[in-house]
Amino acid sequence: MTEFHSTLLREKFVIHDDASKNNGDSAIIALSNRLLLPLVGHGVAEHFIIRAQNMHLATRIAAQIAKDFAENGAIIDRKKLFDWHYAYLSVIKGYEKTWNPHRWVAIYHKGRLVYQDGETEHHPFLDVIEQCDAHNKGEYAHSLEIAKDAFRKAGKNVTIEYDANVAMILSLKDGEAKCGVILRGPNKTTTFNLTARPRAGRDVKISQCLSVAAAFLEGIQLAFLIGMTKQKLKYKLIAPLSPEEKKADDASRKLGRLNGAVTQFENILNVTYRPERPNFSKMIDEAEEFSRKVLANEVKTKIASGDVDGGDWVT
Questions:
Q1: Domain identity same for 227 and 151
Q2: Which end of the chain is more exposed for a tag (fewer CB within 10 A), N or C?
Q3: What is the mean pLDDT of residues 13-37?
Q4: What mean pLDDT comes out for the span 42-52?
């Protein structure tokens, strides 16, 4: 596979029924993370769209698909069917399966839903959008108009508000991979780029780059969770040995494994960062400081009620 381009978007659709819009009726909201996965090789080309409840899940299952495609060729038209469920289970095992009850994934090929799973279902409007995109031959920006026209033909006029932010861009050309990650968090926006080049006869693989991107996307989120939980424990907002502390402990172990995976990636390829590689430990410290400010009002309430010792908190 000589060239590859993928984008991960964080999307929000707000669908209003025009007939009831002015009556105070609530709008329908569909949230998703959408990753493009165009695969070319072995004399075939397949284009998948992966939607998921979170960014790292979408990116990690994309890595599984890309790896299998590179090794075995076409995913859709093969004698031995691709095991979608096994691929899904392999990426949610451990921390994700234990602590994320809202996880879901939906995978499309030519607008058709080829696999879906999760504890919660994805919004069916996302299926409509993918069908419209396939009909519009990949001109995604015009798919909303096609979707609105489909609603009109069904006798319902709707207004669709759309908001999207780029979370990750990955490209591979002439054996060199470039990946940019933009993660907008509650306390800061984390932006960095990495470039991976072959080393010691090892080629850069799409699946490797997707996996390491997933590691960073998840690691940044886990670092914030750990920092927030440490601050809550410090100011007795949660009890020791509580499920929340257990979750943070598991997150710490998972973060260590993610850090190891990134280090392994750096050991087998020539990897450079701009401006620098994200420092998870530093992010935990920053999350603690941010949490101290965010939790100030909650702590003051507990001080007033006597649940927290006022001497433990400095404003």
A1: no
A2: C
A3: 83
A4: 94
